[in-house]
Amino acid sequence: MAAEPTKHDTLLRQWQMLRLIPRYPAKITAGDICDRLATDGFKVTKRTVERDLASLSEVFPLLSDEREKPFGWSWKKEAVPLDVPSLGNGEALAFKLIEQYLAGLLPHATLAQLAPYFRMAGQRLNTLPKGSSFQAWSDKIRVVQPAQPLLPPKIDARVQQMVSDALLFDRQLVVRYQKRGEDELREYLAHPLALIQRGAITYLVATLFDYADPLLLAMHRIRSADILDERVHRPKDFDIDRYIAKGALGFGDGKLVKLEAIFYEPAAEHLYETPLSEDQVITPVDDTRVRVTATVANTPQLEWWLMGFGDAVEVVKPASLMEGIREMVQNMAAQYQLR
Q: What dotted CATH number matches 157-245?
């Protein structure tokens, strides 16, 4: 028989419940709270959650929407955030940077919970004296992509919410996806595994139906998404870092090759500080050139990167990569040939 929860356990559980309840007009059901509590390590029944909500609503400004079942619970719109009544300067700055740089990668439910703190952070920083170090910090930090800047495509807000919630709670999704260049929507049963942001594009990593190999779905091409009750079938050997390291985001098959290329010295300077791989070796060829060898994923991204150096690099190995670049250069020359 399971041990009875202590007063300490009950207090921690109810405190977490208060943090899970969103601000009106958003709402959350007792069943959803029960699922999220289980994720946080609190094993309780839905009935216990319902009793806790009834008790907490007598003390805190909570609303119960009883117009339809299951009932939805919210904090009153004007309620002050409970657990951070007053942000310090450092905390306000941290929330500001989270909002600025991580909002697209956070679960929708988390963003809803953080929204009051984002507002409080902005208000706190705006009330600091002009010229304050904390106030000026966010104007001194930027993240710049090392490529031609592109405007991010729009992602449907409901799709963003459904996908992030499915990821958070390990639930399957039914998605309707529009491939590039196609008018027809394709319906997939998806098992979401991860979200990855690559430049301006955010991708959902998922397996489809009963297949085991993960695929990339561009979030902005998902036209609709619905969460199912069934849990995700997660491949036992899936690891997001290993998946990325194998070159999946370079849109290749992940096959590793030994790259050998000759660079003019100035073009290779950055590789001394930011190597291509752990086994990279740079050796002199002559006074102006160096030879770079490294084990890398053979992907289109590698080709694009090498092509960006123009005539400052010559690929020696592998032969297939060298021939592919040679053919590309010949086609480019033909396009620009004077007529």
A: 2.30.30
